[in-house]
UniProtKB/TrEMBL annotation:
GO terms for molecular function: 2 iron, 2 sulfur cluster binding; metal ion binding. PROSITE patterns: RIESKE (PS51296). It comes from Bradyrhizobium guangdongense. PANTHER family: 3-PHENYLPROPIONATE_CINNAMIC ACID DIOXYGENASE FERREDOXIN SUBUNIT, FERREDOXIN-RELATED. It comes from the Bacteria. Pfam families: Rieske. This is (2Fe-2S) ferredoxin. Residues 4-115 form the Rieske domain. The keyword S-adenosyl-L-methionine does not apply. CDD domains: Rieske. Signal peptide: none annotated. Gene3D superfamilies: Rieske [2Fe-2S] iron-sulphur domain (2.102.10.10). The lineage of its organism: Bacteria, Pseudomonadati, Pseudomonadota, Alphaproteobacteria, Hyphomicrobiales. The keyword Transit peptide does not apply.
Length: 137
């Protein structure tokens, strides 16, 4: 795996991102909560640029009317259709095959035990060395 210097840390301020072309791939590097994450800049659903995605929090509800936010800024919401991805591993939590107008069996399960969706955005390891952000592809 080749190493590519993509930016200095100051080029990607906290809460922002930068798109780089590495080996013909558009890769977006995010700076969130002091960490850097790199993903292929393409939603696996219909190809929306993830650089324009909203960086949101994980929202859970332990009971009706009670909401808890965690991992603020680490979830990406696609700008075209609102699909959400975990910035740490690109995992989607949404399965489009289940979105139909018909009835389904209902079960009550804890949110952290739910099965993850099948779509995964491609991710790349990111390191910071001497104030330069380095992506491995």
């Amino acid at each position: 795996m080749a190493r590519h210097i993509v930016a200095s840390t100051s080029e990607i301020p906290p809460g922002s991102n930068k798109v780089v072309d590495i080996a013909g791939r558009d890769i977006v590097v995010f700076h969130v909560n002091g960490e850097f994450f790199a993903l292929l800049n393409r939603c696996p659903h219909e190809g929306a640029p993830l650089e324009k995605a909203a960086c949101v929090a994980r929202l859970t509800s332990p009971e009706p009317g009670v909401y808890e936010r965690s991992r603020v800024g680490e979830m990406l919401r696609c700008p075209w259709h609102g699909w959400e991805f975990d910035m740490r591993n690109g995992q989607s939590w949404f399965d489009p095959k289940r979105v139909k107008v018909r009835s389904y069996p209902v079960a009550v399960e804890r949110g952290d035990e739910l099965q993850k969706g099948p779509y995964v955005a491609e991710t790349f390891p990111v390191h910071v060395e001497d104030s330069y952000v380095i992506v491995e592809v």
